[in-house]
Amino acid sequence: MTPKFQNATHFKNFWERGNGKELLDWADINPNSDTFQKFAPLYHQVDELGDEVVKETYLKLPYKEASVMIQKYSAQPISENDDAPEIVKKLFLQLQEVPHWFDKDLANKGARFCMRTGANGLMILRDFTLMGGYDFAYISKPLIFTEALKKGAVKRLKDTLEFWVHVTREDALTPNSEAYQLMVRTRLMHSYARLKIKQKTEKWDYENWGEPINSWDMIATYTGFSLVFMQGLKKLGIIISDEEEKGLFHLWKYIGYLLGIPVDYLPNNRQQAVEQFYWWTTIQDEGDDDSAQLAKALLQENLDNTIYKRSFQRKMLKNLHQSMNWFLLDEEINKRLQIPKPAKAFLVFPKIVIRGNKIFQKIYLRNSSQYQKLVEMGSEQQKKVLADYIEHTPKDFHY
Questions:
Q1: pTM, whole model, 2 decimals?
Q2: Start and end of every ER-bound oxygenase mpaB/mpaB'/Rubber oxygenase catalytic domain (predicted)?
């Protein structure tokens, strides 16, 4: 493999004058081409252990029987003596053994940071990380081939929010915890989707798109939850301490490890994260028609969701999210994704958020007790949004 788009207009605009340049300046690095050669093989590598477990369970047994088995060993420790397929025992024995490099205290600092961002964090995940990710055309192809558009964005957002909220709480990743169980389901869902794509379609472009849900795409996704997440929050005036930054990278390194990503490739800091992200974007084409359809579905979710009962409330919410898109994302990306520019009255919304954050942080970042109050308030905000999504997500969705 070689970088395909390093001289393309969309790549140059992003890294020379857009959000990519902001990342390079923040990391203060000049990307080294050796990094591309290190990561490139991951574009055609996948979570083989997860795939083998799915083959022995969900693709071999009745669905209910497979689910009961996975749920059983997710919720309680497994041993060599358990009556389960050897590959299932291998997966769970590996997952329940906490690696020597994991620092729980450092990960909890990252978790507390996620919680204290409150509604700001959720806005960034939706309007910057998720929406901006759609402009990388190839990574979104699994969503198209699994017909995610037909299922609607409400369900996808609920699932993503449920995953993020659970895994970013303090001490959440203890083996057999609720977040751990969700992690197992997510990992096997990725494998199931990958195997179904390979089984059902002859149109998958392996040369350009790599393997479906490949390891490098997975690293890029979780860079979105760490590096890009912080970049977006900084745009909203959120102050991030060095310890919070280190903690966030460590938290997502462990999450990535549990999800089957080769741990030696997961970034420990912003320099490593920007470096691999830079080279990953050299093999991603600009947003295409599929990208625009995914963006349209995400905006339409504001109107389809029944959390707000009145149509004018939903339309206002849609405009507020569009104002964030136009504030956070590069202009050409908004245009490529066909995100309508909101009315001028809504364009002031990000400025109001920034001002509120500055005032709030002056009050709550003064000492540790005030900081903890901010963590608790932010966590409650996030849990409330998740509860609303769970309540209002249609129950008749099928994977």
A1: 0.95
A2: 151-344
Residue 99 one-letter amino acid? P
First-to-last CA distance in the chain?
A: 34
Which residue, chain included where needed, has tokens 């625009």?
A: 292
Q: What angle do CA 286, 287, 292 make, to 5 degrees?
A: 170
Integer Cα distance of 23 and 30 in angstroms: 11
| Dihedral angle sign, alpha carbons of residues 330, 336, 337, 341 | positive
Q: What token pair was written down for 66?
A: 């497979």
Of the pLDDT bands very low, low, confident and very high (cuts 50, 70, 90), residue 399 is: very low
- 30 to 15, 34, 276, 387: CA distances (angstroms): 11, 12, 12, 43
* Spatial distance between the Cα atoms of 110 and 244, rounded to a whole number of angstroms: 5
Those residues with Cβ within 8 angstroms of residue 65's Cβ, 6 or more apart along the chain or in another chain:
none
Q: How far is CA 398 from the centre of its chain?
A: 22
Helix (H) or strand (E) holding 101: none
**For the segment 44-54, what is each residue's pLDDT rounded down to a tens digit?**
999 999 999 99
d(CA 139, CA 221): 9
Q: Could you tell me the two tokens for 92?
A: 């769970």
C-alpha 146/C-alpha 189 separation (Å) is 12
| pLDDT digit string, tens, across residues 34-43 | 999 999 999 9
Q: What is the pLDDT of residue 314?
A: 93
211 DSSP 8-state letter: S
- Determine the Cα–Cα distance for residues 4 and 166; give it in Å rounded to an integer: 37
* C-alpha span between 324 and 322 (Å, rounded): 5
